[in-house]
Task: structure prediction
Amino acid sequence: MATLNKIAIYPGSFDPLTNGHIDIIERALDIFDQVIIAVLHNPSKKALFTMDERVQMIKQSFNGQSSILVDSFGGLLVDYAKMKNAVAIIRGMRALSDFESEFQMALMNRKLNKEVQSVFLMTGFRWIFTSSSIIKEAAQFGGDISDMVPETVKLKLMEKFPNLKE
Result:
């Protein structure tokens, strides 16, 4: 009997990818056969990195790992998940403050498509304070973010913020 390939979508802006994101992705791979990192095109958000830069940084961070695909999308997440034959949407939760909006989004996604489950993974304790916004702010003012992002992301942040320490 053939086994089905269980695919999960991990959506986000990833502006930029952090080690907290990587932690969620690696743990999702313990549950699913494949994770599609779906970079959201959100015209209402002002991103530091272009869509292409974000996709490239993520691809470089995972170095062609076959169980990870990197893609970009716009529109309804459940439509994208259906198009990719995904069975789940992965969401990382750092704190109780994340719960309410994530819960609302999960309920709406469930209403739109009952076949796609929402799976919440708690961020590892080491990354609970980490967010793309905080990392960008620290980098902007020259803070050491080297243990919070992959090397490829650090190098791109150094291009944007020349005073960032090596």
